[in-house]
Amino acid sequence: MPLFKFISRLIDDEDPVIVMPFGGYANRNKIYAQARVLEDEGIKHSEEDSAIKSLYNSYKRFETDEVENALVRVTINDKTIELTSDKEGYIHVDTDHTFEVNTTKNTHWLPITYELIIDDTITHTITDEILFPGTNAGFGIISDMDDTVIETGLSSTFKWKVIINSFFKHSSNRVPLDGAQEFYSLLKKGHNGTQDNPFFYLSNSPWNLHEYLIDFLKFYEFPKGTLLLRDIGFENKRKESFLERNKFIKISHILNTYPSLPFVLIGDAVDLDHEIYIEIAKQFPNRIKAIYIRTTTNKRQMKRVQAIIENATDIEVKLIENTTEALAHARENKLIP
User: Fold this and answer.
1) Which residues contact 102 (CB under 8 A, 6 or more apart)?
2) Is 162 helix (H, G, I), strand (E, B) or coil?
3) Boundaries of each Phosphatidate phosphatase APP1 catalytic domain copy (predicted)?
4) For the segment 194-203, what is each residue's pLDDT rounded down to a tens digit?
């Protein structure tokens, strides 16, 4: 974020350099994780934060002073690799492994440790967790965040509610969609109530908001899962086709990582979730157990959405006005008790 960095250098000194982990996921052969090397902005927040304090914290989240060419040692079990951060400060873990990760029924959270090395000295260490589905997972859940889990206001005029929600509110003061936590908790346990189905949360929000959104999910007791966001650097221009964009690419990667696991997809009609999910269902036949799309009050948008769904005659998409409708459909299809 060059503009934020320029302002930061004018008004502030350099901060300690840290590694900010962003979670990840693994299967029996591969490990995928991501982190970022940047200066520690020392953001401190509480539920009592005023709108001004929340705005200041939001500025600090986007005023990232990323560090290029930093050496980071990554350790997972007995495997150690060394990576160098790119020009945006990111390091991407994409590596094979041969160790036994998870032979238990429940989801296993695999520890991953990052060590920042400067001048041959370890200056910062942090341990994160990577999701590894257990043997009793009946299906996975991939859910959009924006206006599916958390109210963002994307459909508001001039997106003014997005600005208020994102910059002036503490994560605990954000509003989850009514009934979403109950629905997701039931999906987590599956039709017999004893499964441990893995969750993947997606958003087009930047990685700068990762900790903020994780705090929201924890505060409202949503099922623990991997949260995948996107880079908003100036070089990452908006792609013309959604097939080249963040959500489609990440969902495809998840399904390819777990080829024997079916999935439930949950999104909303405000964005392109319906189109993305329909195309995913076409490219991964017999892998999608259900698609849920929350409706919007925008009648013109809903006409377009319904037309697209009707044209996809071989793909079932359940439009839901409220969570009660999703619960009924899920019970009927033996996804929840």
Assistant:
1) 108, 110, 132, 133, 134, 135
2) helix
3) 139-294
4) 999 999 999 9
